[in-house]
Amino acid sequence: MSPLTPPLSQRLDGLRSSAIRDLLKLTARADIISLAGGLPDAELMPRDRIARAADAALTDRSRLQYTESPGWGPLREVLAARESTRLARPVPIDEVFVTHGSQQALSLLAEVLLDPGALVVVEDPAYVGALQVFRAAGARIEAVPLDADGMRLDVLRELLARGARPAVVHTVSNFHNPGGVTLLPERRRELAELAETYGFWIIEDDPYGELWFDRPSPEPVATYSPNVIRLSSSSKILAPALRVGWMVAPTRVCRAVELLKQGADLCGSALTQQIVTDLLADAEWLAAHVDSVRTAYGSRAKALVDAVRARFGDAVVSTDAAGGMFVWVDFADGTDTDALLPAALDAGVAYVPGSAFAVATDYSHAMRLCFTTSDAETLGRAIDRLAGAHAAGRG
Amino acid sequence: MSPLTPPLSQRLDGLRSSAIRDLLKLTARADIISLAGGLPDAELMPRDRIARAADAALTDRSRLQYTESPGWGPLREVLAARESTRLARPVPIDEVFVTHGSQQALSLLAEVLLDPGALVVVEDPAYVGALQVFRAAGARIEAVPLDADGMRLDVLRELLARGARPAVVHTVSNFHNPGGVTLLPERRRELAELAETYGFWIIEDDPYGELWFDRPSPEPVATYSPNVIRLSSSSKILAPALRVGWMVAPTRVCRAVELLKQGADLCGSALTQQIVTDLLADAEWLAAHVDSVRTAYGSRAKALVDAVRARFGDAVVSTDAAGGMFVWVDFADGTDTDALLPAALDAGVAYVPGSAFAVATDYSHAMRLCFTTSDAETLGRAIDRLAGAHAAGRG
Question: How does this protein assemble (chains A, B) (predicted)?
Fold first, then answer.
């Protein structure tokens, strides 16, 4: 008898790698200036400070042991203190849970908050990492479009009025990925009120909030209601390799996430968690460091937006890039950004077409540009190349 | 209208923290010698070597960036080379996948291999971390008892003959947690044959294989069939805080796990993965280091087993502790180890009662003892205390 090869689970049917990941593999060519990535700039990461913190952490052998599933105690204390300031209320340590990047918070929350078939409202264009998780959890998805002031609450209201009862509404409240926009303060309050009226959770996904360029980002949505679960991360302000994200949520949510974290991977790394503790607790150093990242990204963002407006004029509408890592460009002249991509790659520039982030809205005339890893001059050259490809296409 | 508080998912019903975790909280008192834990000894972890590796890793800023979901390339290469030696065949890098400890491999594999309601065969007593994951995935569980030579294949054969068609059989092949025993070489071959006859996956969970005391552990089950997915980890030989485990599996399994890892937490830490790469690649240092851990654990294991046999004589049957971290003690005199526990704690010694690991077999007369974190003299004192409590109970 020939050996039987066992099958894989049917759960995998329909799961596929994100289009963006596949695109990034194509655009790694040395002659391409990639605005398609979504990475923070490694050159701005505080290598020396991290090395000092690693050294200090390793003087204590207990940092090499397993740690608690909700995170190393001193890290949760530092985070509770920071979030108390941010949320203008005392946040107890029981409401702070450390995850392996905020992606892990999303995936554990999908299990904790969603019954199969539950409704999840996402923004359109959507943060793809969240969308994947909600889909994998078997959720039904409704999409609410963004405008220049963030999620369109008029559309959400209409959805609720028509009888939709979401379990979760997901929002990237500050400097949206990919949309670049920030949720208006009035809308934050209104969204929180809707959550309490209709009894849904808000996941406020906020990895970029500290990366503001001109003025601090508005009060978190979590300021307005206990129905808000707030996520953030050290990846964009310190370094992704530390894999330290965190969640501020009601105690019962944290307890449920703890049960799942035990099965998912037992616990995080006491070593990288102590490094993050050390850096976050060093307030003066941290302020100066984050400031230097803001200054660098701010000037790159400005250079990119200026170049886009100079080269494309009325043919596009672009976000202002007031913070974060991305500029969203909408072609008013009917350009199809999927169709333009091969010519752009030939001309030596890469971007992510809007269609990669679209849920229910047609974003085939839009694109996401990332400004974090190129200097102003390179960004200008990238937009020259893009304009060349665009002009040739319209020839 | 009063604000509505949203509910949590019904999926959480029935999920609870493991009895062992709750017990460990009780036994953290300073006057108790705990043989209840399951941790490697932090004093034996190579702190200085890790500090050097961290320093070296941090000379390259790219180590601070996100890394690939299947793991940092050079780590997968080192692991592929090591596993090629262990499995006596060339293991390509595509068959190596790095996880956040081997617990994450278990939880991702449960999704990749199991449809809801699928049958999983576990050993009895069971590794609780695996049992939790399979239960959370909605699997039906059948348990096959251990004897002194590992999983009883006569019982598994009988199960298969009665028509049971498992999707997965899980085995801790070397120095079982909690059972202490090692699967006999003939049984490994036979188990692999059954997997090919009936078309099931074997998950060979092998965190302890390198911690042998007198002679190397037998050839892995994975030597005998491509239906075997082999898990191991750096936690027991280097340090748990690095959170580096790995899996050797057919390419299609690795690809499916990669899709899920993207949603679960994007990627591991390039920093701790480079530290592990550095240490595993330093063959001479590693051999000496692992040897020193073996020597220390081996003498502790012997001291514990000698003390148990000296104090309890014919009242118990104990494993020999030929490797790993645990001794399993079976009371032949009818002692109920759950009932004995309060008196043992009063006498200043803690253990985990067999019932905590039991699936379908009555292990109420057994206990798991961990010898890793106490010296020989302390282990002797612990067994004196246990014998005192036992004698008083039988008064």
Answer: Homodimer.
